[in-house]
Specification:
The chain is an alpha/beta fold. 38% of the residues lie in helices and 15% in strands. The chain is built from 11 helices and 14 strands. The termini are close together.
């Protein structure tokens, strides 16, 4: 258990977390794989979306923009210094601009933001950087982000994530990233949150982290709802990790509800709860493209609290269970209670 976790504006304890979205992004650059839509860098748009979250009772957002996704992930014109706008070439940490622009947004809106530290998947990784740095050195950089500061910002990361693999296997360089994350978590007690989309690779991710000495209860397997097997989610829970249904951005597109996406998630969620694992579930949207914004027809940061909540209660999931998933489960995941 950890006593405090750092937000962009300072440390908080367990009682300060409140209603939490455990996997989102404020500013992010995914143009490497999503060239036209995967770029959040407009401050007024971010402020509007976060204001809606606060109005819905939201308190805290965990921002999973990692080092690679922070490249130029700040408002246009934030700085003319490319070294400030780019991912740190020495430590692999988030860009200074991304961190400080996110801090400004937190102060502007009153929404607490916890930053992740770590590395994305193979297509985004600088292999030469990984070749130059040992796994222990990479872990030391993550530890420094958590215990000292993200270089040049005066801001500390609060969790490790999102640590990613993206295919049906974990590549060699991705494995080194996971092992470094595991060693950093073992040293600091920080939660590790992963990206495991479409394929059931979260179990292999968990095995690597456990091999590195991480307790499964400190691990969140992300994007589990994109794997079309409830047995996969149940196995994650059985092994003691958190099952994160965080791709709710697929459930509201162009202003319309996508019922097949919603109904499958509700069916899985109900089975997980009925199996006794309500305390192992986390829910989020993963807003990472402009089309995901509420103002542009996406879920924004509020879908879980309005349309999804109503449909979940209608399907037989108790409102009190949803409240616990939004408040109690993130607290236990982040602080290790």
């Amino acid at each position: 258990m950890v006593d405090t976790v750092h937000t962009v504006t300072g440390p908080i304890g367990p009682t300060g977390l409140g209603v939490t979205l455990p996997h989102e992004h404020v500013y992010i650059n995914m143009t490497h794989t999503t060239p036209q839509d995967g770029y959040l860098n407009v401050a007024d748009e971010a402020a509007g979306e976060l204001a809606l979250f606060a109005a819905a009772g939201g308190t805290t957002l965990i921002d999973m923009t990692n080092g690679e996704l922070s490249d130029y992930a700040a408002p246009i014109g934030w700085s003319d210094d490319l070294r400030v706008m780019q991912q740190n070439s020495d430590t692999g940490s988030r860009s200074i601009a991304n961190v400080l622009a996110t801090k400004e947004m937190s102060e502007r809106t009153g929404v607490q933001v916890i930053l992740g530290t770590g590395h994305y998947y193979e297509a985004y990784l600088d292999r030469r950087w990984f070749d130059r740095n040992s796994t222990n050195t990479i872990a030391d950089y993550l530890i420094a982000d958590l215990l000292d500061e993200i270089p040049g910002t005066g801001v500390r990361a609060g969790i490790i994530g999102e640590i990613a693999s993206d295919l049906s296997h974990i590549s060699a360089v991705e494995e080194r990233s996971f092992r470094a994350a595991g060693r950093a978590s073992r040293e600091t007690g920080a939660m590790v949150s992963t990206h495991a989309a479409s394929f059931p690779t979260g179990l292999a991710q968990l095995e690597i982290l456990v091999e590195e000495g991480v307790d499964p209860s400190r691990v969140v397997i992300g994007h589990a709802d994109t794997v079309k097997s409830v047995d996969y989610s149940l196995e994650i829970a059985r092994r003691g990790a958190f099952v994160e249904f965080d791709c709710l951005m697929t459930c509201r597109v162009g202003g319309f509800l996508v019922r097949p996406q919603i109904d499958r998630r509700l069916a899985y969620l109900k089975q997980i709860i009925d199996a006794g694992y309500a305390g192992s579930v986390l829910l989020s949207h993963d807003v990472c493209q402009r089309s995901h914004m509420r103002a542009l027809g996406g879920p924004g940061y509020t879908f879980l609290f309005d349309e999804f909540r109503a449909l979940a209660v209608e399907s037989g999931i108790a409102a009190e269970t949803l409240d616990a998933i939004h408040r109690d489960n993130p607290r236990r995941a982040v602080f290790g209670e």
